[in-house]
Design a protein that fits this description.
13% strand; Beta Polymerase, domain 2; 8 helices; 49% helix; 6 strands; 255 residues
Length: 255
């Protein structure tokens, strides 16, 4: 598919630019999220990438990475790039808010560069690490399972709870419903999936299948009727219940 070729070309371009800035200091570059799970929807999906360096970045390297990845002459085939770079050492420090060197977003409404120095860390990286380890792939460097730590299940469950409620307050109803399906599926099965896979799982298990199918059609860009916030609220409550039950089971197992 043309969209997939464009995604591959874009991620290779990001990798080349990072290699040009960091050289031997670059350990690996990774794609995760919809672009790594055959779930990319052109042109609305963003492209999620992580990079790992052997050491902390210099001031000059931080500025150069911002310049090359925020370059308007490098158009993204989706809605934008979501990118973080971390050090190999930081991956060895267990944290529910992992440290990072830089974070860059090129989605127009959220376009930003964040310098990680002095920053309390980014709790979103917990899910990014987990997804990258399980479903991501390398455009440069070792396979993700050789680089990213195994995230404790309780941390993933907590992160999904936070993401659920963020989505309900900030995202559209379609995203919120499918994100809730993904959280509920993980709580019940331990599988990390795309929103499409989670939606199909919810339909198969009869979790308000007509609403989920509506959300799936809307996500693909073929809506006839768009789900409402009231619909989204039901799925958030449903997934929250499943996540809390899974967390309680984790506590019992630890005892």
């Amino acid at each position: 598919m043309e969209a997939n070729r464009k995604v591959v070309g874009f991620t290779k371009d990001v990798t080349r630019r990072l290699e040009g800035v960091l050289g031997d200091a670059l350990l690996g570059v990774y794609v995760h999220g919809s672009a790594s799970m055959d779930a990319f929807v052109y042109p609305t999906s963003d492209i999620d990438m992580l990079a790992v360096s052997h050491r902390e970045l210099t001031d000059t390297e931080r500025r150069k990475i911002a310049d090359v990845l925020l370059d308007p002459a490098m158009p993204c085939p989706g809605s934008g790039l979501e990118f973080s770079l971390v050090t190999d050492d930081s991956l060895n420090v267990p944290s529910e808010s992992p440290a990072f060197e830089v974070h860059i977003c090129t989605v127009p409404a959220k376009r930003k560069f964040v310098d990680g120095r002095g920053h309390p860390g980014d709790p979103d990286l917990v899910l990014h690490y987990a997804m990258c380890r399980e479903r991501g792939y390398a455009t440069f460097g070792p396979p993700p399972r050789e680089v990213f730590p195994l995230i404790p299940r309780s941390w993933v469950l907590d992160a999904m709870l936070d993401e659920l409620h963020w989505a309900y307050l900030n995202a559209d109803s379609t995203y919120t419903i499918l994100n809730a399906c993904r959280a509920a599926q993980y709580a019940e099965t331990g599988q990390l999936t795309s929103k499409f896979e989670a939606g199909r799982w919810a339909v198969e298990h009869r979790h308000r299948p007509m609403l989920v199918q509506l959300a799936l059609r809307t996500h693909r860009g073929r809506p006839k009727i768009v789900p409402t916030q009231e619909h989204a609220k039901w799925f958030v409550d449903f997934a929250t219940e499943r996540l809390h039950a899974a967390l309680e089971a984790e506590d019992i197992d630890e005892d």
